[in-house]
Amino acid sequence: MTNKTIREFDREIPVLMECDVLVVGGGPAGMAAAVGAAKAGANTVIVERYGFLGGNITVCAVEPPSWYRQENTVMPGGVQKEIEDRMIALDAVSPVAFRPSIGLAYDTEIFKYMADCYMADHGVTPLYHCMGTVPYMEGDTVCGVITESKSGRCAILAKRVVDATGDADLVYRAGAPTHKGDPKTGIMSPGTLKFFLSEVDIDTIEATMDSDPDSRHPLTHKLLYQPFKKAEEAGEPRIEDSYNCLFYTPIQPNQLNVNLGTRDAGLDATDVESLTRSEIRMRKVVLDVIERLRKYGDGFENAKLRNYATAIGVRETRRIEGEYTITEEDVYKRARFADTIGVFPVYADGEGVKEIPFTDAYFQVPFRIIQPKGVRNLLAAGRCISCERSSVPTTRQMDFCMVTGQAAGAASALSIRQGVASKEVDIVTLQQELQRQGLRVF
What are the angstrom distances between the C-alpha of 3 and each of 16, 19, 158, 402? Predict the structure, then answer.
């Protein structure tokens, strides 16, 4: 704690610390932003509300950020590759269950340790169990963030800030324009609570799956539907708030990481009451799914719940209104931009949308999509970047979030050195810095 204070309304707030670049949110985008800023020479702090980094990978137990990866897929590199290399070095990866794919699934618990080391190795200061709630502003310029934690309400002052909350919380509270969900209905992609099972017979489950051609998704991975179909044939109703099928990752000798067993179509992750209802409801749905698996699934007769993911997985909330809005056409027609900050394969994964990168097709990511309108020295990274809703199945992907994060961090650091606002950084210098950091830019 410093001896400084700032004034909020009619009260003094202590300044907890000061830094060059402050990153709020410790998911894939936030981790990449922190490393990108630190590599560019900035004194960097990352604030995270949980007790560890990783976001969807760790909090929501999504093991394979690159499950879609094929032999010819063009990957972005940079932080994405460094994380993969570190996980391989820790012997904390396994081949994904999805075929065809050369992607890797990460041990989500080892990932937490890896992330701590990754930040320490780059001199990034992490601050866990801390919520970055509101931007501290002077006019239209963000000069830090108000935080809430066990230390009380404090301020972290920063020359530049990156909003990596996933929900554009800081951009929204700075008064900058945002959009949420479908433009007409407001509907958003559903949330999913993942869970782990123990005491399952993996060999029996795999043999049952391999004997049934219909259990292979035509593009991506194995789809376990038989127990749910048998239940319906026996006259039982479909489980409400479930896909009534699931994908899984085997964890030897007798455990599974289960995905898509639950489905909350009404989740609004920017509403604390909606989040609370969802967590409570989805935990009950998980037990209903397990009961059905035990009753009708080969190899699940003795299945037990090992644990729920720490939080429900969120696919979509706010999107910023940026200086450019990336479109579905940009993705599929391999757009090129003068202000490119990275590349990403032509790939999409959402409800009713699947585009697997079997070829080397890719598009470039423009710097302008991470620049919120109407506010200075605040960049946004992650799934909240400026895009059409139809491109969310691409832009929500964790590897894409890392591209925008690394660029946001590096741009923030370089803008300090150049004495300009974040969005005014020289694009050629930024591109050169990102290439130096190992990110593929062109």
Answer: 9, 15, 16, 35
